[in-house]
């Protein structure tokens, strides 16, 4: 990719191009008849039949693009992802196979392991439910990624002596994930929780600790050829050239975290530029309208997550450009979207796919 193409990819154009006609919002499935949610066997969770337009859209996407959501257990996705009404526990246990048959959903963010490490056998159960092309974005456990030990209410209790501990990261996360998921690993994400001021005040020591962790990790590609290690943060103080250099030297990448605790997507792109060329990992977590602590507010406004409530076309347009440029250059792109980003993760995925298609068709 030449300098002009790279500038376009990362938003350095001296003048913005003419705005193309807006892409029509994705067609929302008609509301199905309300039925009582069932808690039956997994065989009852069947995929929703995709329309011809959705199948055609999926056929246009690059094979290296893996779009997905954060988990799959939402009853409100009836008609979008699966047929019939199902209770959340049923979908948690049995919904992944139906989810993975959706033509656009080629990935999912496994966030469950952040709260408690998963075993290799648990990962293997997930891998057995998805097709060969499916890739998982997997979050490392908080016992490695949070500098603080927290109570059940989330309040900090004391410093975490295992923060960024390489041996613990390998034994509790990397090895079980590789053993259980195998070639289905797309990205192993170390999402570093908000840090206390005392640690942020010593950036060099913090970066040395991160570097020690990353360099200690085993090679992923002998087991998972498409896999990459990514680091996601929750403090803007991380986003420096020194941080990018630590990632580059370790062969890791930055997980683009679209969250109100961080600057907007355009202001995070310099980190990706410093790591170019390479894969893209992105987790679109929460609409900026709701602020840094707005998950509960967004949940209350957006449930049952069956429509786009607060579309964010500006963020989507920039993200689509980075996705298109990354895959066009022959690199993988893993993008997982939360319901709290716009109101319905499957519909956000569809809207992003349509924007990527528009860029592919542009002269």
From TrEMBL:
Gene3D superfamilies assigned to the protein according to its UniProt record, in alphabetical order: Protein of unknown function UPF0759
Database matches in SUPFAM superfamilies: TM1631-like
Compositionally biased region (Pro residues): 14-32
Coiled coil, from the record: none
Compositional bias (Low complexity): 39-51
Region entry Disordered, spans: 1-51
Protein name per UniProt: DUF72 domain-containing protein
Native organism: Xenophilus arseniciresistens
